[in-house]
Amino acid sequence: MLILTCPYCGVRADETELSPGGEAHLTRHGPGSSDDDFHGYLFTRENPRGVHFERWRHAYGCGKWFHAARDTMTLEVFGTYPAQTTEPPRDICDAITARHPGWNWRDFS
Amino acid sequence: MSHRLPDLGRLIDRSKRIGFRFNGAPLAGHPGDTLASALLANDRMMVGRSFKYHRPRGVVASGAEEPNALVNMGEGPGFEPNQRATTTELFDGLTARSQNHWPSLEFDVGAVNTYLSRFLPAGFYYKMFMYPRAFWKHVYEPFIRQSAGLGQAPKDRDRDTYEHFYAFTDVLVIGGGVAGLQAAHSAAQSGARVLVLEQTAHWGGRAPVDGGSFGGAPAEEAVEQLLEELRQMDNVTLRSRTMGAGVYDHGYVLGYERLTDHLPLAKGPRHRLWRIRAAQIVTATGAIERPLSFAGNDVPGVMLASAMRDYAVNYGVAAGKRIVVATNNDDAYRTAICLKEAGVEVARILDARSRGGGALMEEARALGIRIDCGRAIGKVSGGKRVAKVMICAQDGAGGALEEVACDAVAMSGGWSPVVHLWSHCGGKLLWDDQQALFRPDPDRPPTGADGAGFVRAAGAANGHAGLDAILSDATAAGRAAAKAAGFKPKRTAAPRGESTEEQPLEPVWLMPREAEPHLRAKSWLDFQNDVKVSDVQLAAREGFESVEHTKRYTTLGMATDQGKLSNINGLAILSDALGQPIPATGTTTFRPPYTPISMGAIAGEARGDVFQPLRKTPMHEWHEQQGADWEPVGHWRRPYAFPRAGERVHDAVEREVKNTRQAVGLLDASTLGKILVKGPHAGRFLDMLYTNMMSTLKPGRCRYGLMCSENGFLIDDGVVARIDEDTFLCHTTTGGADRIHAMMEEWLQTEWWDWKVYVANLTEQFAQVAVVGPKARELLNSLGGMDLSAEALPFMAWADGQIGGFDCRVYRISFSGELSFEIAVRAGQGLAFWEALMQAGETFGVMPYGTEALHIMRAEKGFIMIGDETDGTVIPQDLGLDWAISKKKDDYLGKRAQERPHMTDPNRWKLVGLETLDGSVLPDGAYAVAPGRNANGQRNTQGRVTSTYHSPTLGKGIAMGLVLNGPDRMGEVLEFLGTDDKTFKARIVDPVFYDKEGEKQNV
After folding, report:
1. Which residues are B177's β-sheet partners?
2. Which residues of chain A neighbour B749 with C-beta distances below 8 Å?
3. At A15, is the secondary structure helix, strand, or coil?
4. Does B680 lie in the same domain as B662?
5. B449, B710, B891 ranked by CB distance to A77: nearest
6. Is A107 within the bounds of a domain?
7. Does residue B896 sit within a domain?
8. Is the pLDDT of residue A109 over 50?
């Protein structure tokens, strides 16, 4: 059971307080999008052995959605950050790079 | 024969005797005995039969690794199968029965399987149960069902209670042997909080049995001193009878405490599940001795050498009168020495090493024990107990050199560190060639949130042998754990340990090395699941190269002991068969729990009334007093109907429908979701959530709306009321309230976070009553208050006001087709308002109605119900709801998906009404057949029933269903299949059965 720190209320939350929301930083494709883009948005997800960006909700706490960057193999957590962003913040990317030199955002699959 | 010795027995109290029963026979033991030691003291060598071949089996181990001695424990509500006799502490009045035999342990019909064993090799069920096809139902399945499972399933409700317990610690030490206690001592010096778990009732592990000394005292005394020091430390908690069951992500650990298994009359919970968060963990879980693979190694009386020593030293029990010891290492000599000194005859020590051992061998020889080096057991003879062993050369095929009569055999194939807890959360192992064992790789530990290791192994669990090495390893591990947990460890030296030095072992995976096929077919690896050396070799020949595949094919290590004895021997045999080194084969995955834990402990307090919270409306108690027949809806209970004394539920439903249609009925609608959506962008937000246009709704008006998922499927429906320019109240289904509220939050927080909208779930803040029927307005007017005339409050309008002195909000909406007012009052006023309505309604013939009447009335009107007409694959267009889908909006959730080709396919099944030709009721979920058959030989289908009722209003069966091109086929008759080959003929009709013009609701 993971422990993630909610970036809103600061609570180090046990996984039982959280509900998972799958991959973070998806781009919504609505009417007018191509079949491929829409299919990708609805169904195609990363499933990496390693660095991953996930959505979590502090469901039994402050109720806020946030993002977590973590390593699915080592369980290392590089950081959590508010969901109101379209890409991971710089300090999180730096923390990942420190562990995985040469790593690139959107390059992890 | 096994028997009680005159001396020894450090854990038993010989001054007291306690009685117990095994298979009905009254037997006696001493306080401190385990069930296994007491059975052995009574010469009960045979304690069960094996799973597949029903071979006689005896106690082989002395602890958690025991594969054979599993018994049905207790009776009635205290009954539990598959309890290990070796870890069951004896108490007065204990009753146990052996398992897996019929009619009796001594005479078992299933034992015929052992003679059929050549027809039951590895994977035989994959080979045999395939053909002929007809055999499956009548021969194979009954056979498999008959033989499945070991113990019996309990029949009664468990009388015991269980609890969960949360604990937080800086350093958790798992294992209370010398290494665990020393690691705890070393960590605690830093001031860190230390929790120590020991699975047995006793501290010190093997040291008091194996001897040696440390800290200047004999091991047993030194353990007591160490314990006493730990007990004096405020920051140390010691828990015996508590197993570390599993290590999980980020330092989460499950502990399993057995509180009253040994005290059946004590009050309080039986088991306690510890849910621990530890910053750092030390696994001091010791090691388990490996059996040797020789023919007949499963005959009762063949025992691990260490177990035989445990029974002698701890319980004063000898496994036999004349014993043969087979070994590949020095440690087993301790057993020979111990038994010899206790007066037991040790007929021979067979050391597979050509040059034998070291100091311990000399000690044994000095006691006059004959030692044969380079020798092995070719075969053990005996049925229900050992009779003799055939001796052969280890480097050979099993040619007999000599036969020795004996009644017990001690075997030792070396030791395997208990690496389970290290491995649970990803710790990796390395193969130690010199000691022939897998041990934790300190460079690849399980890692935590910071990316650093959070588990350390210590002592024998870390691959160390000898007290001195173990103590110094444990001291270092404790110190390192405290430091990693953020404490400053003290520099204290590890106590010096002294134990007899041992010569290295020589790996022996098969005895003798070139054993002939008939011997390999009787050399057991997994005692509980009956897997032999020949089975693993067969699997390798058949191409099972992966150890995980071989495990599943042969069932090696898949029994309740999870291969604690068999794993390493099995994968060594597999490696040999594949011609590759052992580390190339690797181990199977270690998964928690370490040994089985009770289902009760997992459930904890969550059973009966507190299994899950029950949601109750403000009128719940009133319904209960009226004898409501309940229906669970989400976590709510809603009245299904209100049957009167002597009335059948079905009749009550008919009466409620008729009364509501003819007079007036009351429905408790409080459970419906009520979500407030507020803000300058509330209209824009609702336009995205609903398929229709909500932003154009005028304040004071209501509109029915549909919500879809981004996949396009219909997920919820309900009436939206616009309160003012910035405020909407969205009604959802009962089950959908929390889900839809969460969905709104998700979109607002993660996609449209710049929109100025707040949402609040007000479901429980209001009680809501639907006053329904032609006399509804009269009833409400009789209470006095606001103007409820059609002019003041037309259909699909809402207004705030007072009725009978209650502040309320009245919605003129109808889910029944009748004149209907849905009235919300503050939750605290709900019951009083309901009672006022019931009282005032008496002259109008008011009756409460339940959810079934609600369902029937909506079906009579052709209104859809989420969960009946929808199932996650249905889009609004399937249900003829195109009128509720805005063509003007650029976007709404689900719009893009509804443009996908299969969503616009004209051949999607669509909603129609269905009427049987004879007026009977169609079975729910029945399929309409189409001509022809599919590839599986099943009838083709062209539709299915989604809702079906007997309509009291129309006096016949009515139904709705989804049918291929249904709306274009009005009047056509379809054939529906029921169960038991019954068929129903039904005509396709308009789904609105009653008041098609909608006159009744709009008055």
Report:
1. B204
2. 64-65, 83-84
3. helix
4. no
5. B449
6. no
7. no
8. no
